[in-house]
Design brief:
The chain is of the alpha/beta class. It is built from 13 helices and 19 strands. The strands form 4 sheets. It has a 6-stranded mixed beta sheet with strand order 10-9-8-17-18-19, with helices on one face. Strands 11-12-13-14-16-15 form a 6-stranded mixed beta sheet, with helices on one face. The N terminus is likely disordered.
């Protein structure tokens, strides 16, 4: 009552001011932000501080003029007073709901559309490659289900999972069950998990492979505005092209693997991630999967300067949900995640004092004739350099099997939580000079995300695969790495340009994937690397 209408001059001015505070505090490109397109989480943080402290506290606040803070206080005060009367000591989850409600009511946050309902038909299985030092005859098999489940998951073969526990610290409504399984590369293996059959195949070493690599997928504006999510129908269409690409075996043009390189669904609580994976087929969940974390996987607002110790996941949900077999598992295949860092008890968020141990995100592995070196840019170079040196020694020992070696990570620039020298192009340059990798020449390349475009960044070397719904270039499509033929190529299926009418090729592309497999549809793709 008595508040200005959404979109009024006063409200939009406040929105622009807070948007500017966000971009200046995070060293972002401020001309790309507007009152319409700034993250709801920024408003959440400001209102939450007013709710608890009656004032703005923290690094971000110095960028907000005091007169504007007074205006924000005037707008929100009636709601805050009402809230404190009805909920004198609200829980953390209730505080989030209350702050979001206030932000929506005063027009400083864009309401998100309803999220598609989840499906429980196919168990949430993850097949991930093992840490390369362990050899090439194993995979990690994991199941994510509800933490309220007390029964041991039913598997064939029995006793597949050697680790089973509720998630720690974040996304604690879920349970992770996981174990290593020996396989014969090149031979299909049938597993049964909770009554569903999964056919898994690790390609033979040195054999050509085919896979889809994406980054920065968004479909909801629950936490951060997903600018093109609705226009490009990213929820249905990313799920659609992953499922279609997984439908056929490699021999008929299908894929061996798929990856997401950070900012996975811009998700603080795990709900968006669960809903996406619930819609994948058993064939898609049977493919080898890998993930590397991005800035929004640590701090949903995208920067440690606006992180929240009690609410952000700090990649704790991420590292359990995706169940990668990393450097942290080198001495313990059962307890394969290092939980020594409790994010709620760590140091200052803006100083990144509560991140998980870096080993949880460092891994190198091989799929067929391609090696991948995967890492997180949220840590300093000195902390990760020994890992890169180890990875290059491993690459050198397996060089005869390899046609390509790719560095994979999230950040393309040293900003928003990425340490200097840890952006992917810089790491590529570092790795190219390390003994064991220094002889690779044009075998070495990189994939990355962060800036929201699908584009070649360095001819025949570097590829950005982050055009998946967020603001930016507005392009949307399917990047594919394919070494099954002599060309050892990277190619790209353009699905749609957000601002170009008549550019929608989704139906024809997916129909071709279903009929001929990804490899049989290359005439529809743009060649990125020959």
């Amino acid at each position: 009552a008595g508040l200005p209408e959404r979109g009024s001059t006063r409200t939009m001015a406040l929105g622009r001011t807070i948007a500017a505070a966000f971009c200046f505090a995070t060293i972002a490109k401020c001309d790309q932000w507007s009152a319409e397109d700034y993250p709801c989480v920024v408003c959440d943080k400001l209102v939450d501080m007013l709710l608890v402290n009656s004032s703005c506290v923290g690094p971000m606040c110095k960028h907000v003029p005091q007169d504007m803070l007074k205006d924000i206080t005037v707008l929100t005060q009636p709601h805050i007073e009402s809230t404190m009367m009805s909920h004198p000591e609200p829980s953390q989850s209730m505080r989030h709901k209350l702050t979001r409600s206030i932000c929506l009511k005063v027009g400083l946050c864009k309401a998100s559309k309803s999220i598609p309902s989840a499906s429980d038909e196919v168990p949430n299985v993850r097949i991930t490659p093992v840490f390369g030092a362990k050899g090439y005859d194993m995979i990690r098999v994991s199941l994510i289900d509800d933490s309220s489940n007390t029964h041991e998951p039913i598997t064939v073969p029995q006793g597949l999972f050697t680790y089973s526990a509720p998630f720690k610290y974040r996304w604690t409504n879920m349970r992770l069950s996981s174990g290593l399984m020996r396989v014969s590369p090149g031979e299909a293996l049938d597993l049964e998990i909770e009554g569903t059959k999964f056919t898994v195949e690790l390609p033979k070493a040195a054999s050509g492979v085919r896979g889809v690599i994406i980054a920065d997928p968004c479909y909801s504006s629950e936490w951060v505005i997903c600018t093109y999510g609705e226009r490009l129908q990213t929820f249905d269409r990313i799920i659609g092209f992953i499922n279609a690409a997984s439908e056929k075996p490699k021999s008929e043009g299908g894929i061996d693997f798929w990856m997401i390189l950070g900012d996975n669904f811009y998700d603080r609580t795990g709900e968006l991630t669960q809903k996406f994976f619930s819609m994948l087929t058993a064939k898609a969940k049977s493919k080898i999967f890998a993930a590397a974390p991005g800035n929004h996987d640590y701090w949903v607002g995208g920067s440690p300067l606006i992180g929240c110790k009690e609410k952000d996941q700090f990649a704790n949900g991420f590292m359990q949900y995706y169940a990668m077999d990393t450097s942290a598992s080198r001495n313990d295949d059962v307890n394969f995640i290092n939980f020594t860092s409790d994010p709620s008890k760590g140091g200052f968020v803006f100083a990144k004092g509560n991140l998980p141990v870096v080993d949880n995100f460092n891994t190198y592995f091989m799929i067929g004739d391609v090696a991948f070196i995967s890492y997180s840019g949220a840590y300093g170079k000195s902390a990760v350099l020994p890992f890169f040196q180890e990875a290059c020694q491993w690459v050198d020992s397996n060089e005869s099997y390899l046609s390509r070696v790719y560095v994979i990570g999230h950040w393309n620039d040293a900003n928003l939580g990425c340490m200097s020298g840890m952006e992917v192009p810089a790491v590529y340059e570092t790795v190219s000079k390390i003994a064991g990798c220094d002889k690779l020449g044009d075998k070495l390349g990189y994939f990355m995300g962060h800036t929201h475009c699908n584009v070649v960044k360095k001819t025949n070397v570097g590829f950005m695969v982050a055009g998946m719904g967020m603001e930016g270039c507005g392009n949307f499509g399917v990047p594919v790495l394919d070494t099954t033929e002599d060309s050892k190529s990277v190619y790209y299926f353009p699905i749609q340009e957000a601002d170009v009418s008549g550019s929608d090729k989704y139906n024809s592309t997916i129909s071709c994937f279903m009929e001929k497999g990804v490899g049989g549809c290359k005439d529809m793709a743009t060649t990125w690397r020959t």
